Amino acid sequence: MELGVFDSPGKEWDEFASRYTDLIFYQSVWSRVLKEGLGGQPLYFYLREGGEIVAGLPGVLLNFKIFKILYASIPYGNLIGEREHFSPFTEILENEFRKRKIDQVRITESPFSAPYQLNSFKPLIAKCSLLDLKRFDQDKIWEGYREEIRRAIRKAQKKGLYVKQATSRNEVKVFYRLYLSSMERNRAVAKYPLQWFYALYEILTQRGTADILFAVKGEEQYAAGVVLVHSTTSYHYLHNGSVGAYLEGRPNDLLVDTIIQKGVKEGKTILDFMGSDRDDFSLIRFKEKWGSQSMDVYTYVKDYHPLRCKVWELGKKMGSSQLGSWLVKNLRPSPFPFPRGGESE
Fold it and tell me: Which of 196, 210, 253, 329 could form a Cys-Cys staple with 192, CB 3.0–4.6 A?
């Protein structure tokens, strides 16, 4: 068995990955988003036996000057391939991580694949909510909603809100302002830079594999927005942003309804609401009221240089302070290993 790595994955990787998953996050095009959006170095590890790739781990290395972290991947990226090869593959990988002087590795499960526990890693739990779109009849979607959802959508419509799609780079900036507004309102660090959203727009929307959708009133009043990423059979509610003053008008409900209608029409089977902190009950309730099912999804973390990792974690905890925000900004923002999809209202 031979370990290899693609730093610019292409056709061979895609043909291998597509045998085990149809998620866009495992495809080579996603490595371009990670590279151009976050400035990371794609590292798509693989194990070859008899000339064939039998196991793989997609990842991106982020170098924060004083700290090197491998995300495998963002948002999902656990091992794929033939499961009987996973154990020897992980042993070889651990040696490779040490050789590359990586300080920390974070491997996040996909809720679309069977779990594989990494015993030498520390598990961190999040919630992921998946909505089965097959439960909706295309002609009776409205009747399938709970009354509270129908009221919320009617309220949005009475407020004059409607949904439109981003069609220019300028509207990427508009979405970024909505995202920053949500982060400020939630007292959270805005960990994704503007360049990340440019990359999503320029690489994926041009291919028809992502949309930036807005709930708008009039021509210039942007109330809320969503970055929606497409896999072959599923949608992923990757990012959300909104203006607090408009939330009473229920723009997020209007956006989710539009996504469901679009997904059912296009034959998608799953709407992935992405991750939530397991203690964020209001956000989880917002996702589940549409009929989604929430499950535990694990991110497996291993510190290869414990002292550096302790310093790094301390810096992240300082992120909500003025000094911490300055440090995060100047060391380049670190992304969530699992994007927090949606807002509770």
Answer: 196
